[in-house]
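#dry-run=false #mode=assembly
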Amino acid sequence: MHRNGPIALFFHGLVVAFVLAPLVVICLVAFTPENTLSIPTTSFSLRWFAAIFEHPDFVQSFYNSLWLATLAATISILLAIPAALAIDRYDFPGRDALNGLFLSPLIIPHLVLGVAFLRLFALIGATGSFFWLVFTHVIVVTPYVMRLVMAALSGMDRSAEQAATTLGASHWTVFRRITAPMILPGITGGWLLAFINSFDELTMSIFVTSPQTVTLPVRMYMYATESIDPMMAAVSALMIALTAAAMLVLDRAFGLDKILVGQK
Amino acid sequence: MGFLTLQSLSKVFGDFTAVRDVDLSVAKGEFVSLLGPSGCGKTTTLQMIAGLVEPTKGTITLDGRDITREKPSRRGLGIVFQSYALFPHMTVAQNVAFGLEMRKVAKAERDRRVKEILGLVHLAPFAERYPRQLSGGQRQRVAIARALVIEPPVLLLDEPLSNLDAKLREEMQFELRRIQRSVGTTTIMVTHDQAEALSISDRVVVMEQGRMTQIDAPYRLYERPATAFISSFVGKMNRIEAVWRGGRAEAGAVALPGIAESLPEGAPAILTLRPEKILLKPAGQGLLDGRVASRFFLGSYWLFNVETPIGTILVSAPNQGGEPAGEGESVALDWPPDSATVTAPAQGAAA
Amino acid sequence: MSGRRALTPWMLVSPAALLFLGLVVLPLILTVILSFHAYDHTSGIQNSFTLKHYLTVFSDDYYLSVFWRTLRLAALTTLICAVVGAPEAYVLSRMSDPWRSVFLLVIIGPLLVSVVVRAFGWSMLLGSAGLLNQALQALGLSPVRLLYTETAIVIALVHVMLPFMVIPVWTALQKLDPMVEAAAWSLGASHFTALRRIVLPQVSLGMLSGSLIVFGLSASAFAIPGLLGGRRLKMAATLVYDEYMAELNWPLGAAIAIIVLVANLIIMLGYNRLVETRARRALG
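#status=ok
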């Protein structure tokens, strides 16, 4: 009913161009046949994608990140579901404080978390451990999972649980057969969001990864501070493609705007 | 002793007493409605019977067994929730089978009973649909089927018709009664809709502010409301202020016939009279003359506000086809003495 | 029965609670302690305690200049984000549906793309032989030096932070009854007046919340100044990284990190206080 005027649309066009420019440029440069960073004009080449595989350290980092993000998102879900259930369904002393604690990584700069983990790991001799790296990522992604699972829990019809109880189901059966399937969208959305956030995390990871556990963003950062060549563009284009695919799934399943915007 | 009995059942939330010393005995196969406005404690009472709310005091016995402290999952009662509480991720058949599954009923037997009950509620063709694919009335019948398939000793209905539109609500009232008759399950229904309660119950329990104030058959509740609250809540009622003089009620020097208890001479009295008991007659031929102030046509009947020397009186008359007295016309009001009740106002104001 | 009921929530939260106590609270306490440890360039962290690192940070010109730059660039980024993001959210909210969801996705979707990738994209665009300069030269203009300048950092920061401004303003606009603007017009207000008097006051809280998030994240940003600021233009986060990885002066790095954390918490808590008073006033 309200229409945007031509000035508004022009402004909107500029903003969209600004937002997309670096991403589009990356995707174009990735296909250059040249040795320099240039937009391919006459022919496209996959040589820089092939070049990635001549850098086993990049491939290794990709697998590190993949494993790390999968484990971190999964562990986070397993911890967040019972915690969210307790906070949503029960009233107990310290409930608000715990809720604040679980959401605190959102307001602590990742830089500070990285420094803090580094200190702890230096003291307990865990520096460079992949096991501990996973748990640092669990900390970073759990707030996102908590928020989505809590929103799903408070949004569901509680009387369905009561109905199942009166039909003879035990607490565990009610959770397994009724509650869990009903909050499944929140759980899946939380897992994917956690996966993406863990996969992309740089600032905290750069303090706690060792040469063996370097994640892809950290590897890319290190590489980009040394030299810039079209291979970085190829790796970046792959990451953009991966993210876009995940976004598409998230959007189809739940509406991306709901997940990113709706923090009810 | 009844099949299901509540004995001095109470529930206190903080400093608010939701239900106060409620006693009720329900016979096997009976359909009882708990009627009252929101906040009267009827839903809390139902939830205590279901085991979803723990009573503060009192006992609940079912078939001679004390179930006051029993877990809801062990009581085996069938409950239809106001929101229906269907499991959105299960089909109609899976919803209905859930309770049987919890009772470890074998698959073949389960399927047979699900099929049978879906037939009873006329939903057999919808077995494989999901709740979101059904209309409101169909969802409601799934909820009833799911509650009944476990063959509960008692069926509890929490405002089962409140989410339906007016026409469907009327249809479902009779449908509900038909299903209840055919399975013969003892049923307790909570409702705030007096028409619903009157039309399908064997007995109606009126609740006011946590107490049960009248337990009676629907027609007796209507004809002989025990409190002023009930008389105004159940149907429409004229309340005429009068004075007890010479063994009858008088208002503005007009004698008003009615069934009366004995009152002291000169005491104030209240005459209560249903609008449909009053007959409209040509002016001068009734007990009381008046003028039609306003008239409404409501399909099957007409409603009049008649101005009389003793106040405005509401009259309803069945639609006989012709046009009755119009606004501004003079009429007379008449009623048979046994259709009006004269009481002391203190009794009426008690509620 | 009530005894068991009281235990249930504790059993449910305890795994997550223990993890967070062990990996959030404990490391932060250790870091605060670390920031007071004395440090020696030859023998490393000492077992004696000192306020020296905090005093150094607040008196040394180099550190002060980095903090000043951090605050300045974060403030500038916040301002640009507000000026661009709020109108963009408004334009988005006035679109009709297929376009609205598509462009909302375009604007906030990049949030999910790694910040390293986005920083790299800007370094390609802004580099001395970058695409922007290639385009300028093709148009016969002289190239400009952008990469490794504060301008480059601010451009990329705005790019990364813009969604954090659009989201809260968008949310606030969603809560707005679309008819209130029309009501203002019907009462004789011009479009601009309606915008200023009716819409803006109602989204100002969203803008404020977006500004604080943008400021907080910009002030602690790492990848953008790291990749676009080069070795010379440090911000707080890259400074901490240097102290840890190049200088190996962990206590000093910890002190800077703690300062960043405290500043962040003050901003966030101040914001909560503000929102609460606003809410209280709105409720009367």
